[in-house]
Design goal:
Number of strands: 15
Strand content: 15-25%
Distance between the termini: 20 Å
CATH architecture of the largest domain: Up-down Bundle
Number of helices: 8
Radius of gyration: 26 Å
Structural class: alpha+beta
Shape: elongated
CATH superfamily of the largest domain: Cytochrome c oxidase, subunit III, four-helix bundle
Strand order of the largest sheet: 5-4-3-2-6-7
CATH class of the largest domain: Mainly Alpha
Number of domains: 3
Order of helices and strands: HEHHEEEEHEEEEEHEEEEEHHH
């Protein structure tokens, strides 16, 4: 009933707000394989106990327990992959602070570096690997100096002005005495916060979105059942640009699809903990040969619960793949 409620809420929510459709981590597919294998091993364990093949029982239950661990490992890796790609439990859709050119942009040897939403350009050509990697190193230095946990806010910048220079809303930012300044005044705390997210977005390879990747390939955004088009860093729907109200709503939208996915997986893990406890007890009792063809109710109940966990995950995974 909990998962029926969550999936129903998912369907209702996605029809009325901006909704991110993103690729599911490959780890979720592997975890599905392992949970199916675990159910198969428990089926073989029940069949073996009915024949009083006690040595076979402990092997099948042990393998089921092992595949359960592998399922959990791949689930965890799937969460990590989602987070690395910008799909967190609570995150906006649009990169409102770190978007290139919104507040900050970069100069290289006095000439502007431009960004088309995916790639960086210098003098009309895509940034070379050498300059791009140097830019990332520079942004890591900016991150360290603007980090909210760095109370001193001192910047240790290498070759500032010779290689890279910052611009803030078309004003050149100068560097003096380990501080960044505009018009001989240190940048404000709000500017430092904007700088942190600007540099963090470069290091994390995010452009205009909190989700990583290329729009249309790795993810898309839907609004009231219609796919948004994204070209030249502008959004349109049904061939027309987004209205001011729609664009404002998009800028303030939360990635609810990501939040629901985490809710599904975390709720399933809570059920999985109970399954692990039951499976471990069954495994120990099978090693102790406490079960027989006339006494295996505990194993049967644990097996039913483990099958339920598998079926539930397959339902959730199928829902996220086909409905999402």
């Amino acid at each position: 009933m909990i998962f029926a409620g969550l999936t129903s809420a998912y369907l209702v929510s996605r029809g009325s707000v901006f909704w991110v459709e993103f690729k599911k981590p490959a780890e979720f597919l592997w975890s599905t394989v392992f949970v199916i294998a675990g159910s198969l091993f428990m089926f073989l364990a029940i069949r073996s106990i009915k024949k009083d093949q006690l040595n076979h029982v402990k092997i099948w239950v042990g393998l089921a327990f092992l595949t359960g661990i592998l399922f959990t490992v791949f689930q965890y890796n799937g969460w990590r992959e989602m987070q690395r790609n910008g799909n967190a439990l609570n995150t906006p859709v649009i990169n409102n602070y770190g978007k290139y050119g919104l507040y900050y942009s970069l100069l290289y040897q006095g000439k502007e570096i431009t960004f088309d939403g995916y790639d960086f350009y210098y003098q009309g050509e895509i940034l070379s690997d050498e300059i791009y990697n140097s830019m990332l190193d520079f942004c890591e230095e900016l991150m360290a100096g603007s980090d909210p946990h760095n109370r001193e806010h001192k910047f240790k910048l290498t070759d500032y002005g010779t290689a890279f220079t910052l611009k803030y809303e078309d004003q050149v930012v100068t560097y003096l005495n380990e501080a960044l300044q505009i018009a001989n005044q240190n940048i404000t705390p709000e500017m430092q916060n904007q700088l942190y997210w600007f540099s963090e977005s470069r290091v994390s390879n995010r452009g205009d979105f909190m989700v990583s990747g290329r729009y249309g390939e790795d993810f898309v955004i839907w609004y009231k059942g219609k796919k948004l088009e994204y070209q030249n860093r502008r959004f349109s729907i049904d061939g027309r640009p987004l209205k001011a109200k729609e664009e404002s709503d998009l800028n303030g939208a939360e990635n609810q699809a990501s939040a629901y996915t985490f809710a599904f997986v975390l709720m399933h893990v809570l059920h999985l903990i109970g399954g692990f406890i039951a499976l471990f007890v069954i495994w120990i009792r099978s090693i102790q040969q406490k079960y027989s063809s006339s006494n295996y109710l505990g194993m049967q109940l644990g097996s039913i619960y483990w099958h339920f966990l598998g079926i539930l995950w397959i339902y959730l995974y199928g829902f996220l793949i086909f409905i999402h």
